[in-house]
Design brief:
The complex is a heterodimer of chains A (625) and B (507).
Chain A: H1 7-26, H2 30-53, E1 60-69, E2 72-80, H3 82-105, H4 112-131, H5 135-153, H6 160-191, H7 196-205, H8 210-227, H9 236-239, H10 245-254, H11 256-266, H12 268-272, H13 275-296, H14 302-321, H15 326-357, H16 368-371, H17 373-387, H18 393-407, H19 411-436, H20 452-467, H21 478-483, H22 498-520, H23 534-541, H24 546-580, H25 584-591, H26 599-624
Antiparallel strand pairs in A: 1-2
Helix pairs in contact in A: 1-2, 1-4, 2-3, 2-4, 3-4, 3-10, 3-15, 3-20, 4-5, 5-6, 6-8, 8-11, 8-13, 10-11, 10-15, 11-14, 11-15, 13-14, 13-19, 14-15, 14-18, 14-19, 15-17, 15-18, 15-20, 17-19, 17-20, 18-19, 18-22, 19-22
Chain B: H1 5-22, H2 28-52, E1 61-73, E2 76-86, H3 90-111, H4 116-135, H5 139-160, H6 165-194, H7 199-207, H8 224-241, H9 249-257, H10 260-285, H11 287-292, H12 294-314, H13 318-339, H14 342-373, H15 389-402, H16 409-424, H17 426-432, H18 434-451, H19 467-485, H20 488-501
Antiparallel strand pairs in B: 1-2
Classes of the chains: A mainly alpha (625), B mainly alpha (507).
């Protein structure tokens, strides 16, 4: 199975090509092509995973020569290792469910086949990224992932908001991409190769100076910051909500944003080798976790709250990876997995809600649980999981993160993680209570449960959001052991004190309780906390004015500067030229004759030039000879 | 040695010219057909040559040499030879020229609306000129072919262009005439110091102490000052052609006022001649000077990139956006050249070919849109993806290629050029990468404002692309994707030659 892992990305690519060619004819049966291809990819991925998971299995590597730079050979190929075997399963699984779900959600859309072709391309790109054995190939698929998410965010191209959001997603992530671009380029010259194995060997041999490791580490992380929506490049992710909701599930769970975390995990040895670079990862991650959570507290749009929760959870993953310890590595990648399940679940459930009530404002909903029992139940499971309540999947991975941070002695970051967990529990249950309990804001609407094609994927994800955590419990860390079996220092991983678990659970319960008081039981008014601190509320609600800041400090000055340069170009540069060539005008009169087609005259001019050359040659010879 | 393949290739368009002369003006269908066919023959021959090209060989291939005429100079008759040949540097550009020639010929049938006979006659001359520029192996031939591209272009712009065509044509002629005058002076000066016109012989004379052209046993004695002078003069000549800011203003006018086929040729091939000259002459003949001034080239490159981007960012017409975009992309070629290493040169040549294809495709698409809407103003357009989904899709794809999306030629070109420079001047290269961000910004602005957004009533009934338009667009896009997915098609012929061009400093 491992040796045919290259087929996994190619199946969705084939689906993409088929859909581009025949989508118009296939109409809504396009969905079957997409579903079949991802199903096949999922089965293959599962087989690959199981083969790698078996005791004694080795990594698999295959590459062919793609390009040469002088004596340097650039390879393309694929690799199967623990981390990407796991990723392959996550990506194909979530993608498969999104493909199935979309059949119901996108039903009736006139660009249905186009949507499926984008989904397939998106899946291909992410899978290609995951099996890449070198950084250049990662970069190639990294960019393709970015373009696909641009296409899907801008799927409703006629909406100005979608256009703006798609553009923003592409440009903001591209800022990060340039960091990665520079990092890869420098690394190539430091190491002489793009291959991961060569890079890690060079790190072991001390072929790189420590400042070089730090520099490259930070540059590569900048790429991850863009892709994974970390501060300060997080602004595109919440706006990316303009895309169809199944796309959000895919972007937030398995593809786009996962790529950044995955990259940092892949380059983990690099961060282990540089304390400074890993601290940058940890602090940016920790800050993003609490920063985004504090914005999530006040948003009214159901998808926007989920978007900020994604940003915040990705911050947790970065925080864990930034510990540069084996425990941190396991915690970060483990959380990437559990998050994929519960976040995909939450988005699909949110999509189901939006599909039913046609609004995204949580205060225009209410009382939906009675009418949408399946959606309501799975949404609750998702909320419990993300809030980190025992024994849901999110509980196990969040514990691991907090434990890894604590064990490294970063008490400040540990506190940040705990407070962010409180925020998370609060805003998630604020969302749940406002949407599903109480009275309906508008009773006239006929609301009913989504069709099976949409609820079945949600149920499958809900099951995983409950049980996925058991693959890596403190008592029996199967996943962790397997992921790190080839890693140096794996045996040092020891588990955090039990009280962390107690504190984190209590904090989360407190958040849920507060949310219940305010939005469930409504015994505390919604404004009780916001009113005494209106500026604080505004700061959070307006997302700390970051968008406005960027607009006024970067976008506008750039435009003004461009306008200024246009003036310079038209009046000064071109003006000077005109001045110098004052005879332009005179010649212009002659030019009028062009119209009459006096070809001879101009042939003569050309001929004169040649004659001049001949004379020059002759003259030269005579003069110097 | 006996091969006449290159002569056939170079002059094959003229077969069409002869036929065209005998076809009456009124037979427009026949004129168009012959016009297109006269670009098909070189296209086929170019691929024949490419197929027969020996990838391992560093030197010239398909060499042809004939004594042509001679100039009396004191006691000796100095021979002027007819010398053709291709190496790894010119081979990709010959293929590019043939592709763009075909593209432009088809564009002529769609976008030229009068006097097809004269148009295609001038076109075939231009095509021969362009092919000749890349196949000629001595300064004299190079100059003649160079002029053969210049003069017909002047007429095409002046006769078939848009409203302000005459001014644009004059400006084009003035600038480029000045450029070729400077080039001519340099050529004469080179000849006067080495007494040969042949590229290889000049290069040997200038760089190899053991060369038979040297009686003193050291490279031909031209003083440091003169070398610098000639280098700078050539740089100016090619800077006009490429163009390099601030010598670019002729191009802005030329791109907005020229008829579509002329813009395709200009943006696709003509401006690449500047870059080709830079590598062939500046770097080839004066490697030490080039190495000394690499920093200058890099700075010019970064200025071009950023300047082009910033202006493209605020233009309100698609054609202007593309014009400034061209300037910006030429900067990437400069960066690759400035790297003075194999990777950088490879990137520079990649970028020449890649930009040639992408720019021509973009201009073609804009013309297709213009043909239907009579406008290229961003504030007039919007939402045309509804009525023209195919054209809009291709437009977005081409823009992505231009912005350096992997899987298409723009990425590997840009990446390779930058990679080369990162080895030598990481700081300047890092500043240059700002262009990567800005390129995405201005291209998305232009394309999304055209195709995305609400569709105004004026644009709800536009016709999507016709078969004759689809064919060349898909073909060119195919080449763009081919290079992007499998860049070795381009790099293999290059490798051996580039090793020869890279300056051996200190040796």
């Amino acid at each position: 199975m491992m040796s045919s892992a290259w087929l996994i990305p190619l199946l969705p690519l084939a689906a993409f090509l088929l859909l581009v060619a025949f989508g118009r004819q296939l109409k809504e049966s396009s969905a079957y092509i997409g579903i079949l291809a991802t199903l096949a990819a999922f089965v293959l991925a599962l087989g690959t995973f199981l083969e790698r998971f078996a005791a004694g299995a080795e990594n698999y590597y295959f590459a062919f020569q793609w390009l040469t730079f002088g004596n340097k050979v650039i390879d393309m190929g694929f690799e199967v290792n623990q981390l990407n075997a796991m990723m392959l399963v996550i990506v194909t699984f979530v993608s498969l469910l999104v493909h199935i779900y979309s059949k119901g959600y996108m039903h009736g859309d006139e660009r249905f086949p186009v949507f499926y072709s984008y989904l397939a391309l998106f899946t291909f790109s992410m899978l290609g990224l995951v099996i890449s054995p070198n950084l250049l190939q990662v970069y190639i698929f990294w960019e393709l992932v970015g373009v696909c998410s641009f296409l899907l965010v801008g799927f409703y191209f006629y909406k100005p908001e979608a256009r703006a959001a798609a553009k923003k997603a592409f440009i903001v992530t591209r800022i990060g991409d340039v960091g990665l671009f520079i990092g890869i380029s420098l690394l190539f010259w430091y190491v002489g190769s793009f291959n991961f194995s060569d890079i890690f060997t060079a790190l072991q041999n001390g072929a790189m100076e420590s400042w070089q490791i730090t520099l490259v580490g930070i540059l590569i992380f900048i790429g991850a910051v863009g892709k994974s929506g970390q501060f300060p490049l997080h602004t595109w992710l919440p706006d990316a909500m303009e895309g169809p909701t199944p796309v959000s599930a895919l972007i937030h769970a398995a593809t786009m944003v996962a790529a950044g975390v995955y990259l940092v995990a892949v380059m983990f040895p690099l961060y282990q080798a540089s304390v400074d670079a890993s601290l940058v990862v940890a602090y940016i991650g920790g800050f993003t976790a609490i920063f985004a959570a504090s914005i999530g507290l006040t948003q009214r749009d159901i998808k926007r709250v989920l978007a900020y929760s994604t940003v915040s959870q990705l911050g947790y993953m970065m925080l864990a990876l930034g510990m540069a310890s084996v425990a941190g590595y396991v915690a970060g990648t483990f959380h990437l997995m559990t998050h994929a399940f519960f976040k995909a679940l939450l988005f699909l459930a949110a999509g189901s809600v939006i599909h039913a009530v046609h609004t995204q404002d949580i205060f225009e909903m209410g009382g939906l649980f009675k009418k949408m029992r399946v959606t309501g139940t799975v949404f609750l499971i998702g909320c419990l999981s993300i809030a980190g309540i025992f024994p849901f999947a999110g509980y196990w991975s969040k514990e691991e993160i907090l434990g890894a941070v604590y064990n490294k002695g970063h008490l400040g970051l540990f506190a940040v993680g705990v407070i962010a967990a409180f925020f998370t529990a609060f805003y998630m249950f604020r969302l749940f209570f406002a949407t599903f309990t109480g009275e309906a804001a508008d009773d006239t609407k006929k609301v009913h449960e989504s069709p099976l094609v949409m609820t079945v994927p949600m149920i499958l994800l809900a099951i995983l959001a409950v049980v996925a955590g058991f693959i890596n419990t403190p008592g029996n860390p199967v996943l962790g052991h397997w992921l790190t079996e080839t890693m140096a220092g794996a045996e040092e991983a020891h588990h955090a004190p039990f009280w962390i678990s107690v504190v984190a659970t209590l904090v989360s319960l407190l958040g849920i309780f507060l949310a219940w008081l305010m939005y469930g039981k409504k015994s505390v008014s919604r404004g009780a906390i916001a009113e005494p601190f209106p500026w604080l509320y505004q700061l959070s609600y307006r997302k700390y004015y970051i968008d406005e800041l960027y607009n006024n400090v970067i976008v506008r000055p750039l435009r003004v500067f461009g306008e200024f340069l246009t003036m310079v170009d038209v009046y000064i540069i071109d003006g000077l030229v005109k001045l110098v060539a004052g005879f332009t005008k005179e010649l212009g009169h002659a030019g009028a004759r062009v119209q009459n087609g006096q070809i001879q005259t101009y042939g003569l001019i050309a001929f004169l030039g040649i004659v001049l050359l001949v004379i020059g040659l002759t003259f030269g010879r005579g003069y110097l000879g | 040695m006996d091969s006449i393949l290159l002569t056939l290739l170079t002059f094959s368009p003229l077969l069409g010219l002869i036929l065209l002369i005998f076809i009456p003006r009124t037979q427009t269908g026949a004129l168009k057909l012959i016009g297109v066919l006269s670009s098909v023959l070189p296209l086929i021959l170019a691929f024949v040559v490419y197929g027969a090209f020996d990838l391992k060989q560093a030197g010239l291939q398909f060499v042809e040499k004939l004594e042509w005429f001679s100039i009396p100079a004191e006691q000796v008759q100095f021979p002027i030879n007819y010398e053709l040949g291709v190496d790894g540097l010119s081979m990709p550009l010959v293929v590019l020229t043939a592709i763009i020639g075909f593209f432009a010929a088809i564009a002529g049938t769609i976008f030229v609306d009068k006097r097809w006979k004269e148009f295609y006659i001038l076109f075939t001359i231009m095509l021969t000129g362009m092919l000749g520029v890349f196949t000629s192996q001595n300064l004299f031939l190079f100059f003649i072919f160079f002029e053969m591209t210049l003069i017909p272009m002047f007429f095409v712009m002046g006769i078939w262009g848009f409203k302000d065509r005459e001014k644009a044509a004059m400006k084009f002629l003035l600038y480029n005439g000045l450029g070729s005058a400077i080039m001519l002076i340099v050529f004469v000066a080179i000849f006067m110091s080495v007494w040969t016109l042949n590229f290889t012989e000049i290069k040997t004379a200038f760089t190899d102490p053991g060369s038979p052209f040297n009686t003193q046993g050291s490279p031909v004695f031209i003083g440091e000052g003169l070398r610098y002078g000639l280098f700078i003069a050539l740089l100016v000549a090619f800077a006009i052609k490429m163009p390099i800011a601030p010598l670019h203003t002729w191009m802005i006018k030329a791109y907005t006022e020229s008829p579509t086929p002329a813009v395709l040729i200009s943006s696709g091939v003509l401006i690449k001649i500047g870059a080709y000259g830079l590598l062939r002459f500046n770097v080839g003949f004066f490697p030490e000077v080039a190495h000394q001034l690499a920093g200058l080239l890099a700075v010019l490159g970064v200025i071009n990139i950023i300047y082009g981007c910033l202006l493209a960012l605020v233009q309100n017409r698609l054609k202007l956006v593309l014009a400034y975009s061209s300037i910006s992309h030429m900067g990437i070629i400069l960066l690759g050249v400035a790297a003075m290493n194999e990777v950088g040169f490879q990137g520079a040549v990649f970028q020449m070919v890649s930009h040639g294809l992408i720019a021509a495709l973009m201009f073609f698409i804009v013309s297709v849109i213009f043909e239907r809407t009579s406008t290229d103003r961003l504030d007039d357009l919007g939402g045309i993806a509804k009525s023209m989904p195919f054209v809009s899709g291709i437009f977005l794809t081409a823009a992505m290629a231009s912005a350096g999306l992997p899987g298409m030629s723009g990425f590997i070109s840009e990446f390779t050029a930058f990679l080369g420079l990162f080895k030598e001047m990481p700081i300047i290269a890092a500043i240059g990468t700002l262009g990567i961000i800005l390129t995405a910004v201005y291209l998305l602005r232009a394309v999304l404002n055209t195709t995305f957004g609400p569709t105004s009533d004026r644009w709800t009934v536009l016709a999507d692309a016709q078969p004759l338009e689809v064919l060349p667009m898909v073909l060119v896009l195919g080449f763009i994707v081919l290079i992007g997915v499998y860049p070795s098609v381009l790099s293999e012929p290059l490798q051996a030659t580039l090793q020869n061009i890279v300056p051996r400093i200190g040796g």
